[in-house]
């Protein structure tokens, strides 16, 4: 009788565990879908009209194709709740588990739990739509060469920027430190959005680390972009994600200032580990606009890769210095497509620039007309940070890490981001570049 009882109990526990796992997976997917939806709404109707570089230029509604005038006064619009850039803080509050939905310390409404009760863990390879705090953290590649970690051995390393030896941008490479809920935070519509900091667990002792700023889509929590933040950090970059993306560099600049203060603080783990002249910016939707404006307004930023974005006034890319580089990854059916293409095709663009389209995605209700007037559907407004994250990682390894061999992947007629398959996903890259 006891034996039968315990067998039934075990079966019940297995069934319950499976149900919880499916629920957690569904929650993570919902967070991604919510982030895309919020980003679509704010990119199409930004609360802060100052992110349009030239108000005199026509702004095209990416859905209807009609010329519209951006609305919203940043001085009166209560949805534009940016923190004061003069605020500072070293509030590395809580080392988070991989799945924020299962960690009471990351509730966006109630805020973090007591930092003293938080836990610390190393974050490794993850699926951006799935998270599991129980997974062991290991380099993703099975190659012994790619699993080598930076060490304090007597082996001499060349000067320059540190990059993970495992170079496959489709995989996470190194164990990382990942911290959420870093002050100063923003409260908007009853939700709390904070910075995220991620970097390799074992920092180099002989080389500097380049910096990447990540901007979330408008109205989206940066925690929704954990996959690409962790991927970039695992390749050797120190990544700071800003709480919100107003599209005018007012969040990006304070975040870089904060990283510089950590780089100058002898008591900080990042002391003298960063090269603040090797900074790249990237982000989704409004986060792409924040990145583009950082490239224009902050001398520390030397490159930007916009994800599903493009200046609404179609002039920002033409203002980028020829000494800097810029790229856009966008979807064939994404609402950002008209602005991405018009920004790139502005005849005044002098900077080395690339325009990389994701094509052949699964049928969807996100559709746009191509350059031939044909309607294309498939990869939409959420394509870049998830299915297309490899392009951003490769771009940063090229322009920040100095891997010049990657130029052939982007520039020319036959590289992987010119006419190659989207690894692990349905569809192909269709890229073009100029001024290289």
Distance between the termini: 77 Å
Helix count, per DSSP? 8
Radius of gyration: 22 Å
Task: Output the CATH topology.
Answer: Rossmann fold
Sheet/helix structural class: alpha/beta
| DSSP, total strands | 15
Mind describing the biggest β-sheet?
A: 11 strands, mixed
Order of helices and strands: HEEEEEEEHEHEHEEHEEEHHHE
The parts where pLDDT drops under 50 for at least 5 residues are 1-24, 49-65, 67-121, 125-155
CATH class (first level) name:
Alpha Beta
Shape: globular
How many domain modules?
Answer: 1
Helix content: 10-25%
CATH architecture: 3-Layer(aba) Sandwich
- What number is the mean pLDDT? 78
Topology, pairings included?
Elements: H1 2-44, E1 59-60, E2 67-68, E3 94-95, E4 122-123, E5 176-188, E6 191-200, E7 209-215, H2 226-234, E8 238-241, H3 252-263, E9 274-284, H4 286-297, E10 301-307, E11 325-331, H5 337-345, E12 353-359, E13 367-369, E14 375-377, H6 389-399, H7 407-410, H8 416-419, E15 428-434
Parallel strand pairs: 7-8, 7-9, 9-10, 10-11, 11-12
Antiparallel strand pairs: 1-2, 3-5, 4-5, 5-6, 6-8, 12-15, 13-14
């Amino acid at each position: 009788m006891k034996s039968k009882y315990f067998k039934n109990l075990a079966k019940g526990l297995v069934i319950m565990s499976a149900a919880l796992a499916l629920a957690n997976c569904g929650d993570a997917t919902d967070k991604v879908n919510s982030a895309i939806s919020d980003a679509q709404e704010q990119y199409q109707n930004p609360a802060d009209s100052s992110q349009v570089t030239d108000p005199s230029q026509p702004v095209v509604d990416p859905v209807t194709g009609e010329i519209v005038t951006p609305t919203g006064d940043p001085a009166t619009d209560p949805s534009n709740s940016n923190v004061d850039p003069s605020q500072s803080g070293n509030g590395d509050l809580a080392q988070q588990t991989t799945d924020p939905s299962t960690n009471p310390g990351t509730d966006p409404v109630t805020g973090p739990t007591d930092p003293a009760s938080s836990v610390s863990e190393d974050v490794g390879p993850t699926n951006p739509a799935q998270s599991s705090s129980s997974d062991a953290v290991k380099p993703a590649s099975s190659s012994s060469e790619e699993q080598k970690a930076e060490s304090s051995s007597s082996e001499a390393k060349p000067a320059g920027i540190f990059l993970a030896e495992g170079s496959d941008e489709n995989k996470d490479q190194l164990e990382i430190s990942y911290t959420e809920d870093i002050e100063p935070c923003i409260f908007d519509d009853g939700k709390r959005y904070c910075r995220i900091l991620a970097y390799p667990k074992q920092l180099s002792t002989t080389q500097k680390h380049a910096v990447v700023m990540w901007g979330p889509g408008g109205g989206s929590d940066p925690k929704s972009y954990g996959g690409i933040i962790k991927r970039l950090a695992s390749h050797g970059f120190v990544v700071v994600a800003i709480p919100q993306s107003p599209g005018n560099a007012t969040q990006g600049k304070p975040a870089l200032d904060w990283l510089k203060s950590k780089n100058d603080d002898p008591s900080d783990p990042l002391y003298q580990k960063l090269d603040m002249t090797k900074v790249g910016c990237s982000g989704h939707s409004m986060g792409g606009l924040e990145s583009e404006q950082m490239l224009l307004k902050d001398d520390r930023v030397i490159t930007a890769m916009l994800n599903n974005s493009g200046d609404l006034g179609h002039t920002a890319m033409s203002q980028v210095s020829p000494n800097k580089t810029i790229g856009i990854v966008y979807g064939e059916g994404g609402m950002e497509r008209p602005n991405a293409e018009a920004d790139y095709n502005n005849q005044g663009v002098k900077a080395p620039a690339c325009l990389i389209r994701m094509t052949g995605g699964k049928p969807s209700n996100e559709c746009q007309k191509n350059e031939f007037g044909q309607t294309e559907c498939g990869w939409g407004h959420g394509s870049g940070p998830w299915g297309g994250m490899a392009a951003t990682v490769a771009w940063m390894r090229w322009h920040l890490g100095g891997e010049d061999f990657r130029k052939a992947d982007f520039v020319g007629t036959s590289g992987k981001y010119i006419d190659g398959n989207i690894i692990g996903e349905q569809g192909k890259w269709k890229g073009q570049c100029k001024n290289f």
